[in-house]
Amino acid sequence: MPIRTARRGRPHREPDSVRAVIIDAHHHVWTLARRDYGWLTPDLSVLYRDFLPRDLEPELSAHGVVGTVIVQAAPTEAETEFLLDLAHSWPAARAVVGWVDMASSGGPQRLGHLAQDPLLRGIRPMIQDEADAAWMLQSTVGATFEAIGANGLTFDALVRPHQLQTLAQLLDRHRHVPVVIDHGGKPAIAVDSYQLWADDIRALAQRPQVMCKLSGLLTEAGSRTADADLRPYVEHLLDCFGPERLMWGSDWPVLTQASDYGDWIAQARRLLQGLSADEQAQVFGRTAASFYGIEERS
Question: How many domains does the chain have?
Fold first, then answer.
């Protein structure tokens, strides 16, 4: 399936200076001393250290990234508060996607408390770690999901391919909440398992409130990291969502297990080179700015 080319007659709504803005729609920071990253163990040697703004700043500067979205990596409110405090002192941080216990009866109240911080723009439960996909269909989760919309927030869906159909059921119950699927739904590129993922992604894309992140693909790819390996997945995401509902993210520092920041930007640009400059600018900045309510400034 070929990459979509520019459509005739599409108006250029912004000047070149705005179209060039790059926003990293997905990265993390952490400190081991926090001790709330249960998944972060010494065997993950590349990742088992502190990753803080000072480590990412050189990459942002080198590649023209003017703003970022910090995403939770621990299932604790304490980490969310840590990220919010950090974001308030770091000019590059334009938004935070945090965590709340969505399955708790007190989830809506806790969400309302966290939402008082203007930099909190979304919530992400770590659904990929739930053994039962039906976890997300619990009534308590639904009540907290409703509170996400009521507080003007968004929802990051961290799911694996076997959870996509259940995610569709959740979204059909709560159609007014803006949703973005993290990491393209984590297709199993390493084993070239394409079709079931592709069908379920296309079905989810029929829901207009759903967007998708072009991120995290390399860490699902194993040894299949060449452009030719990723291209069918990227082209499918483009075909399903279009540039206006697709946003680029680094997934740094998890990315460092497979590549580095500059190489991933360069690879993403190659994979999107069939798009017009305006459409590329949409993926690299404007979609994230619109979804997370980020001011597009250089």
Answer: 1
